[in-house]
Amino acid sequence: MTKPTNHTRYTWLILKEMSTLVRYLHQNRASINQKEKNVQSSTDVLFILLGAIMVLAMHAGFAFLEVGTVRKKNQVNALVKIMMDFSVSAIAYFFIGYSIAYGISFFEAAPSLVGSNGYALVKFFFLLTFAAAIPAIVSGGIAERAKFNPQLIATFFLAGVIYPFFEGISWNGAFGIQDWLADSFGAGFHDFAGSVVVHGVGGWIALAAVLLLGPRYGRYGKQGEVIAHPPSNIPFLALGAWILTVGWFGFNVMSAQEIDGISGLVAINSLMAMVGGTLAACFVGRNDPGFVHNGPLAGLVAICAGSDVMHPLGALVTGGIAGALFVYCFTLTQNKWKIDDVLGVWPLHGLCGVWGGLAAGIFGQVYLGGLGGVSFTSQVIGTALGVAIAFSGGLIVYGILKKFIGIRLTQEEEHDGADLSIHKISSTPAND
Q1: 262 CB contacts (<8 Å, ≥6 apart)?
Q2: N or C: lower Cβ tally within 10 Å for the chain?
Q3: Residue 343 — very low, low, confident or very high, per pLDDT cuts 50/70/90?
Q4: DSSP notation for 165-192
Q5: CB 121 within 8 A of CB 323
Q6: Is the pLDDT of residue 431 over 70?
Q7: Mean of all residue pLDDT scores within the chain
Q8: Torsion region of 117: left, alpha or beta (phi above 0 gives left; psi -120 to 50 gives alpha)
Q9: Nearest-5° angle of CA 170, CA 395, CA 127?
Q10: Which tens digits make up the pLDDT trace of 347-397?
Q11: Which of 326, 328, 316 is nearest to 348 (CA)?
């Protein structure tokens, strides 16, 4: 009998170990699959949580952008409004809005809420930061003359009813509208990260509120001349713009909501649109720092809808048009139409949001380098529906508040500033 060689012995040992491993894998297949699912769900939780945190940070951007733009006597009010608006939005969206949009509530025992590592909970957190952006957008338009408590009431209904109503139509297929668009025109309304759903809705609600409030006292002379109210702090304005710009990549990229859906295309398109908006705003706005720092925001608003389907060159053009659109329409709104939108939120979010919804249907087409799967007709219809719901909803909410409570500070209170009139303290009390 031939004595086994070392090679044969090692081969036999390897085969034995492999056989043992196969038996282990077979016997523990369910356990292994469950562990893989747990890892996947944990990764998704972390992914969307990071997105929620980045968008939450954007609210600091809203705050400082407003602080830098308003006059010094209204800076404290700007900071307090954004913080309170977020808190009220959280309550409204948790108890009412999320159910309207997605038919989901959290009125069940905690053990059932922690399934998939609590993914459903952090998804709510992420989407809440979108809902809370609506009153944050409105805040910039109505700055310096809006009453505090009525605005909180408005926030509750905006985040709890008006916004979720259109959110459910666009992102959850409510009322069969998306199915009808897909059947009729080959694709439903596409808004990946909220050009229309978030920014457009916020901007058009803001327009309704601004029109009902009227301009600030002293903003326009008796002969219709424009009286300048220059920003109080350009560095704060720039800081707010930078915070928003950085957070926006969480806003857009994390809209995939799962790690498997993440796309570098969304990130690059966001970058190109931001750059395009900045360059266009600087050129058209003749180096004005307010326009320059709002330019990237205009581009990012516009790219939200089609960031997942456009070619980067299409994103660059989309952002450039948005930057120019903001400068032109802000000037037209303030100087010709005499609409006192303090931060220009209607041109920035309302009009650039509309452009973004339409741009997705243009530059998302295959023949323009996009990935396809979009219909320009559906984009027009979906965008128009969002505008109609937002503007009419804003008129209803603020119209009712104006009639029964009042939404505007008195002339004396406005003269003294919202800081002293509402909060009884200025931004720099030691210097008073």
Answers
A1: 47, 253, 256
A2: N
A3: very high
A4: HHHHHHHH-GGGHHHHHHHHHSS----S
A5: no
A6: no
A7: 93
A8: left
A9: 35
A10: 999 999 999 999 999 999 999 999 999 999 999 999 999 999 999 999 999
A11: 326
Q: Residues 367-376: pLDDT tens digits?
A: 999 999 999 9
Is residue 300 within 8 Å of 245, Cβ to Cβ? yes
Amino acid at 109: A
Distance CA 235, CA 65 (A): 9
Could you list the residue range(s) of the whole structural domain that residue 380 is in? Answer: 32-431
Tell me the backbone φ, ψ of residue 34, rounded to 5 degrees.
Answer: -65, -40
CATH of the domain at 181: 1.10.3430.10
Helix, coil or strand: residue 146: strand
Amino acid at 211: L
The residue among 358, 324, 406, 431 whose CA lies nearest residue 75 is 431
Please report whether residue 311 resides in a domain. yes
Q: How far apart are CA 117 and CA 202, in angstroms?
A: 32
CA–CA separation, 310 vs 389, rounded Å?
Answer: 27
| Overall domain count for the chain | 1
Which amino acid belongs to residue 353? G
Whether 15 is in a domain gets the answer no
Give the tokens for residue 385.
């529906």
- Domain assignment present for residue 21? The answer is no
Strand partners, 146: 408
Task: Please write down the HEC assignment for all residues of 379-410.
Answer: HHHHHHHHHHHHHHHHHHHHHHHHHHCCCECC
Q: What is the CA radius of gyration of the chain?
A: 26
Say if 24 falls within a structural domain.
no
> Residues 304, 280: contact at Cβ < 8 Å?
no
Query: Which residues, in sequence order, are bridge partners of residue 408?
Result: 146
- Helix ranges (H only) for 304-417 are 312-331, 345, 352-363, 376-404, 411-416
Would residue 262 be called left, alpha or beta, if left means φ above 0 and alpha means ψ between -120 and 50 degrees? beta
- pTM score, whole prediction: 0.91
